[in-house]
Amino acid sequence: MNLKDIMIDKLIYIEEKVFTKQDVFTFLTEKIARLKGVNEDLLLNAVNKRENKLTTAIGLNVAIPHARIKNWGKTTMACLKTKEVKNYESMDSKPVKLVFLFISDSNKPGEHVNVMSKLSYILAEDDNIDKLLNTKSSEELFNSIIEISNAM
User: Fold this and answer.
1) What per-residue confidence (pLDDT) applies to 39?
2) Taking the CB of the first residue and of the last residue of the chain, which one, N or C, has fewer CB atoms within 10 A?
3) What is the pTM of this model?
4) DSSP secondary-structure letter at 92?
5) What gap in Å lies between CA 103 and CA 24, rounded to an integer?
6) CB within 8 A of 22, min separation 6: which ones?
7) Phi and psi for 94 in degrees, rounded to 5?
8) Which domains are seen in the chain, by residue range?
9) Quick one: which of 83, 45, 46, 51 has its CA closest to 64?
10) Coil vs helix vs strand at 75
């Protein structure tokens, strides 16, 4: 699986403002719910439940909140690049600026692990993070993610 298989350009956002962690979760789960025609609270509750176990802010200005939902179907990912996310404690204390939120099917654990692996590989390179953080439009961010993913 390649990230282009689960990314939809309508779910890539650049917002030059400050969010709280909960605002980001609400914003992105609302967008996914609207696109998929599902209840937003289902997604938001699942993401919050996972987040309560351990922060998904991995450091280097990046967070990867996620949830697994029974009978979800195809994994869906949204991305937000923002000025900063307040009260999102990361492992390196750097402010979160880039959020990849994805929802996967709890009946397909391999797919979930595969997405985490692909994102981790991309984000392991500082140049890749810099490239993503320096994008100026949603279209550029989407294309950069796909380009980096394809180069793997």
Assistant:
1) 95
2) C
3) 0.96
4) T
5) 15
6) none
7) -80, 145
8) 3-150 (3.40.930.10)
9) 51
10) coil
